[in-house]
């Protein structure tokens, strides 16, 4: 199946200061990733990170290369992380099948050629969210079940930021070149993710928001800590965070998001925290 893709270029923070709402959304917001029987990809020039979605309904779907890669196959020089946010599905990697239940993940190393996605049931399809980054080495493919993840409890109800962070694809769980992925769920009554906010100039990041109830939304904050902007985000939409930008959001209800990162290091804790009362 032919993938639909968009290319997003990198921007200087000096330029982004001048963007109006439409330009900000055009550059950083990713809409319509999960579409039945389609492959949708966004190729960002920040660390050449790809975010994508695949929802196989009528038939299985093969992940083909796209022109910006100038590669014979998608993972010729890349690694791939997948988290299934739908019902049971299977990812077949060069003939080996991995069944992914809801919120299970798969890491696929560089060099695998045939990546095929399918759903167990077309009435309740799998919904595969993907992140891919350039890779210099082949590491083994590995499924990450919900018991394999590292879990951290963060925040508190009094500061409206109580949440559970699950690390799926980090180097203490799976060998990777540069990709990191995880999932954070807000506790009922809390609204703020990633507060206190942080930046990590060594890595870019993409947040994919889901489990946002109908008629609710998340107000996502980006920009340099002293020059922030906001983007309103609906269910199953993603947002690109440049390395110089905070990435923090407040929902009108609780919600979940998948974070994915790439760049200079694999050190999850390498963050420069911002003082809440100094944000502007
Ligand atoms: O809620 C949070 O805090 C997060 O999920 C933070 C992300 O994991 C992140 O931004 C990692 O750099
Ligand atoms: Zn971050």
TrEMBL record:
What enzyme category does the UniProt record give? isomerase
Q: Which InterPro entries match?
A: KduI (IPR007045), KduI/IolB_isomerase (IPR021120), KduI_N (IPR027449), RmlC-like_jellyroll (IPR014710), RmlC_Cupin_sf (IPR011051)
Q: Which CDD domains match?
A: cupin_KduI_C, cupin_KduI_N
Tell me which PANTHER family the record gives.
4-DEOXY-L-THREO-5-HEXOSULOSE-URONATE KETOL-ISOMERASE
MF terms from GO for this chain are: 4-deoxy-L-threo-5-hexosulose-uronate ketol-isomerase activity; zinc ion binding
Cofactor comment: Binds 1 zinc ion per subunit.
Q: What are the UniProt keywords, alphabetically?
A: Isomerase, Metal-binding, Zinc
Q: Does the keyword Zinc apply?
A: yes
Q: Which HAMAP family does the entry mention?
A: KduI
* The name this protein goes by in its record: 4-deoxy-L-threo-5-hexosulose-uronate ketol-isomerase
Pathway given in the UniProt record = Glycan metabolism; pectin degradation; 2-dehydro-3-deoxy-D-gluconate from pectin: step 4/5
